[in-house]
Amino acid sequence: GRQIFQPLHTLRSAEKELLPGFHQFEWQPALKNVSSSWDVGIIDGLSGWTASVDDVPADTIARRFRYDVALVSALKDLEEDIMEGLRERGLDDSTCTSGFTVVVKESCDGMGDVSEKHGSGPAVPEKAVRFSFTIMSISIRADGEEDAVTIFQEQKPNSELSCRPLCLMFVDESDHETLTAILGPVVAERKAMLESRLILSVGGLLRSFRFFFRGTGLDEKMVREMEGLEASGSTYVCTLCDSTRAEASQNMVLHSITRSHTENLERYEIWRTNPFSESAEELRDRVKGVSAKPFMETQPTLD
């Protein structure tokens, strides 16, 4: 009496469920400007970038995962650690379905010269840049509890074993325009995820996660690049305040963190439009070394 034949599409989806790295998930509310399909693999690094009128099409090869898909995959890899953490803290996993907080550290750095010395492969730029992330900690605030309990902490946050590549691109890290074109969509996805919760099955139950992103993994060169500051030879020596080299050498103590992403954007506009018709020198002094459009906010944290 019971029919055992399944229609083909049902078998297909059952089969897909068994593939590694293939996890069904949902965002509530749905992510803005990001497709809701969750079975997404490796995509072209430039997809999601909408060229504006004065942008030259970026001539580069880049490949990446969609940010949310990569985060889901990372969480599923930590599934056993999450369940173990709940057990160790004496938490009943059936009541812990919401209130999870995930802290993600982002890193981005040049990978140096990767040119093919004597091959006959495609001609590509000699430099490559990798953008990656590490899940630093997962905590949960149980119902009615004041304090969050940490159930997972990455023991080796700087190891490449815990660092997950998100985007690989053939580009020199000082090519601000191409970096903007490729990482712009990544930043847009990250921004969308901040305003939403991820619903994902962990340990057989649907649970909800919120994400926080930190960016210490960027070396100073990259921070300058992302925040639109002049390069390392600049008289404005600090990526956090407006000190010049001379001022810093006179006074190592009275430093305050004065820069913000928004302020750098405003300064870039002044640099671009020169509203007071100043000379290059005066203008430069006014914007304190912000000479390109910053596109990525780097939030420092302790590693």
Written overview of the protein:
With 303 residues, the chain is an alpha+beta fold. Helices cover 28% and strands 23% of the residues. It is built from 8 helices and 9 strands. Strands 1, 2, 3, 4, 5, 6, 7, 8 and 9 form a 9-stranded mixed sheet that branches. Strand 8 and strand 9 form a beta hairpin. Helix 7 runs antiparallel to helix 8. The longest helix has 19 residues. The radius of gyration is 23 Å and the shape is globular. The relative contact order is 0.15. One of its GO terms (cellular component) is DNA recombinase complex. This is Recombination activating protein 1.
Give a quick set of tags describing it.
303 residues; alpha+beta; 9 strands; 28% helix; globular; sequence-specific DNA binding; histone binding; protein homodimerization activity; zinc ion binding
